[in-house]
Specification:
This protein has 348 residues and is of the alpha/beta class. It has twelve helices and twelve strands. A hairpin with a 2-residue loop joins strand 4 and strand 5. The longest helix has 18 residues.
Length: 348
């Protein structure tokens, strides 16, 4: 009989050649209802509108944008926690949107999530051992004693004392709770982990520890991350590529260094300009382009380019039709009729 660890390492031969994850024209709209007894749909929240990207094995894709832009909804639609309104989510060649609930369970062994709030994501009535070992129990992997051994191994992997299995979540700090959530995500040896703002609720020093841990685990287990965040300074250090999202749409995607050095979309430029520089001399010399106005309501998104109501380069055509994603070289694509170049960035 194989041990739990050995059983998890047994994977079928891969016959699919291509990206680990392919998302195509993903759409998620939440209905707005009216009435108490007889409810009717009076509109929709346009949470995700036509999102497309690919993610390779062992790669980290950062998904950034302001709060409410649809980042977390995108992650949950990939896992089918939210059923997409339309679009395609292909994981290792398998279309997830067409699978039944029973069929999704086996796929979810390969896909896990780490939630934003380390306080709300752990059941306060369950011990750490039960929380981390729950995925093993759900998928009927190993016997009870073997699962306990696997839980201790997982706690050690994420930097916690293996003897903490009988403690409860309230006995731990925020950083320790997030490590528990990460141990739970690693329990089934997944290939993809969706990190939904995993460090935003933590102190800066603890954030650095978590990012270093995620980097080490990625190298050790060849993990792919979809790293969702609103802090571009955090995303820069962990991501191979970065996708910028605004009001449900991806407006720019590029390799990390390329995006930070040569932003093409005015929205990306505005986000980068808001990142503080610790050197006061450099901070005084830098270009500041503050994004003006508020994000439009997702139940009535603007016609044309979704960013035109706040864009300092908007022209009449921007109000008429959403610009397509265009290639700007070096794996850099953006959806903008009037993209920035070096000269326009300097004048802005």
């Amino acid at each position: 009989m194989p041990t739990v660890t050995e059983e998890l390492r047994v994977t079928p031969a891969k016959t699919y050649e291509g990206p680990l994850l392919r998302v195509k024209d993903l759409v998620k709209r939440f209905p707005i209802t009216s009435g108490i007894v007889f409810q009717r749909t009076v509109g929709y929240i346009h949470a995700v509108e036509g999102v497309s990207f690919e993610l390779d094995t062992g790669e980290t894709l950062g998904l950034v944008g302001e709060s409410g832009c649809g980042k977390s909804t995108t992650g949950r639609c990939i896992l089918q926690l939210y059923k997409p309104t339309s679009g395609s989510v292909v994981f290792e060649g398998q279309e997830l949107t067409e699978l039944k609930r029973s069929e999704l369970q086996s796929v979810r062994r390969e896909m896990q999530i780490v939630f934003q709030d380390p306080y709300a994501s752990l059941n306060p009535r369950m011990t750490v051992g039960t929380i981390v070992g729950e995925p093993l129990a759900i998928h009927s992997i190993g016997k009870r004693r073997e699962r306990k051994g696997r839980v201790r191994e997982l706690l050690d992997i994420v930097g916690l004392n293996p003897n903490f299995t009988n403690r409860y979540p309230h006995e731990f700090s925020g950083g320790q709770r997030q490590r528990i959530g990460l141990a739970r995500a690693l329990a089934l040896n997944p290939k993809l982990i969706i990190c939904d703002e995993p460090v935003s609720a933590l102190d800066v020093s603890i954030q650095a520890q978590m990012l270093n841990l995620l980097d080490r685990l990625q190298q050790e287990f060849n993990l792919a991350y979809l790293f969702i965040a609103h802090d571009l300074s955090v995303v820069k250090h962990i991501s191979n590529r970065v996708a910028v999202m605004y009001l449900g749409k991806i407006v720019e995607i590029a390799p990390s260094e390329e995006l930070y050095q040569n932003p093409v979309h005015p929205y990306t430029f505005g986000l980068l300009a808001a990142i503080p520089i610790p050197d006061p001399v450099l901070e005084k010399k830098r270009v500041h382009k503050v994004l003006e106005g508020d994000v439009p309501s997702p139940d009535h998104p603007p016609t044309g380019c979704v960013f035109h109501t706040r864009c300092f380069r908007a022209q009449p055509i921007c109000t008429q039709q959403m610009p397509p994603m265009e290639d700007h070289g070096h794996g850099h694509s953006a959806a903008c009729y009037f993209p920035l170049d070096h000269e326009s960035r300097a004048l802005s």
